Amino acid sequence: MDMSLADAEVEVLIVGGGPVGLTARALLERWGVRTLLVEKHRELSPFPRSRLVNVRTMEIFRRLGIADAVTATAFAPEYGRVRFRDTLRAPDFASAAMIGIDGPIPESPVVGVVTSQDRLEPLLLAAADAPIGFGVELLDLIDEPDGVQARLVDHRRGMRARVRAQYVLAADGANSTVRQQLGIGTTGPGAIGSNSTVVFDADLNEWRGEQPAGVYMTAHGFFGPMYPEGGWAWVGNVSGEQALADWAELVAQAIGPGEDIHIEVIRVQPWVVNAFVAERFRHGRVLLAGDAAHAVPPAGGLGMNTGIGDVHNLCWKLAGVLSGWAAPGLLETYAAERLPVAHRTLDQAVANSRLMAQAQQRRHAQLQEGTTPSGEVELPWSEQYFAQLGLVLGVTYRSAAVLAAEDAAADSGTDYIPTAEPGHRMPHLWLTGDRSTLDAMGEWFTVFTPDRWLWKQQRSGAYPVRFESLTAEQADECRLGRHGALLVRPDGHIAAAWSDRPSRADLLHDTLTTVNSPGSAAPEGITGNDRYASP
């Protein structure tokens, strides 16, 4: 898996070995794409960092075959809750459930989890066999007519090399070397704060066992249990003077008064809270993903999940272009689809930060006024709002790779309403007892129809296509007639919909060509959405 770096040629060079880069490596390997991932650090991250794996990301992990392993190393569903307290020892003055984390939801076959990034990354690493160079840093990129040349330095072996790739996927973090070298600017507030994460051991099982939570928000920062078997992390905004103090003492103050607890500090990591979106996600054959493309505040746990959504959108398009069944113009739809998601996610994360601050401010006001010092604070959001299923499952794509009606509905806000309209994620329906519509999708396009025999007569050419049967009841839920069909992309988003039987033998082929060759003229009979026009 680790490699002896030498001059080489690959189809995709992945820069950055965090969850986003590792997910891209696993997805591309399933498509048969030759990749090399380089990570400047000498090992995977030892810090908890991102801790929330939402339902959409777990659906992607289910497809990669690691969802069960992720769940096995994660916390139980009752930890899918945020508790607000004055100190860790104090009683809750408010709490909120993480919908889709605290238990099953009917809209998905999976449940999200609270875990730690240092538990997640080894599972993603093991999900593929493609070569990785740890301790390998990108120096620069050189554009070539039919590819990109990357100059790399292997710090462990003290050697330099050149790697030629047809495309570069940059997932190298908020301080992305690639983004800066390409001169791609950012929009948004930028750096909005600084925190320090203290990983420590202490006997705090009393709080974990009786009042479990994934996050305990206090007036002195927030706590999170690291692993089911033990360990804690405290995150706080530490001033310059405080940074000179004893870290264990700072953690003890946040725990609150009471019986002394021995605190063993294991490691400390300062970090910057960033809030921005890159002005563009593509420069020639180089594409940005994850924090390199957008960095969002941690409130709501949206950052890593959004980055994994990026590569889930991008990797099938890269595979199609490299395999020859998709035109290079398909890659233009990556930014068209994911930039709006990034801006909406940033807005929501900033809003989450403000809402959390409001809860704390109301509590401080209570304490100062002496009105209800032991009472609960009314949260400035509902549990459904905090869960944001509309943002997690309700993302809607509008691009040349989606044949949607011009007046089609946009994203559904904070609530999620399943719909089988083009641009939306295919709704979860049980095809058999334990097989979801989401399980039927993979490295191919999927046609869902109540008349599988009829649609299998359609010509599909070189495009990878599979056909799945829907019951009459499921077809009704998807607003399909007895002979209608949905064409679903490899990333699970609906590309086209027909309410009735195809009018000609090459309708499916021509639709696939239109979706995979943006900019080309649509063949006769290919409309925005054939629910509203005769096929």
Short description:
It contains 15 helices and 22 strands.
Strand content: 15-25%
Q: Got a strand count?
A: 22
Helix/sheet category: alpha/beta
Contiguous helical run count = 15
Characterize the overall form: globular
Helix content: 25-40%
> How far is the N terminus from the C terminus?
49 Å
- Give average pLDDT, whole number: 88
* Rg estimate, integer Å: 24 Å
Largest sheet: 8 strands, mixed
The poorly predicted ranges are: 531-535
Folded structure, characterized:
By secondary structure, the chain is an alpha/beta fold. It has helices spanning 19-30, 55-64, 67-72, 117-125, 177-181, 205-210, 240-243, 247-255, 303-323, 332-369, 383-387, 389-392, 452-456, 472-477, 507-516; strands at 8-15, 35-39, 52-53, 81-84, 94-97, 113-114, 132-134, 136-144, 147-154, 159-170, 186-201, 215-218, 221-227, 230-236, 264-278, 282-283, 286-288, 294-295, 445-449, 465-469, 485-488, 494-498. It starts with 7 loop residues before the first strand and ends in a 19-residue tail after the last helix.
Structural features:
alpha/beta, 15 helices, disordered C terminus, 535 residues
Set down the secondary structure blueprint.
Blueprint: E1 8-15, H1 19-30, E2 35-39, E3 52-53, H2 55-64, H3 67-72, E4 81-84, E5 94-97, E6 113-114, H4 117-125, E7 132-134, E8 136-144, E9 147-154, E10 159-170, H5 177-181, E11 186-201, H6 205-210, E12 215-218, E13 221-227, E14 230-236, H7 240-243, H8 247-255, E15 264-278, E16 282-283, E17 286-288, E18 294-295, H9 303-323, H10 332-369, H11 383-387, H12 389-392, E19 445-449, H13 452-456, E20 465-469, H14 472-477, E21 485-488, E22 494-498, H15 507-516
Parallel strand pairs: 1-2, 1-10, 2-7, 4-12, 10-17, 19-20
Antiparallel strand pairs: 3-6, 4-5, 8-9, 9-10, 11-14, 11-15, 12-13, 13-14, 15-18, 16-17, 19-21, 21-22
Helix pairs in contact: 1-4, 1-9, 9-10
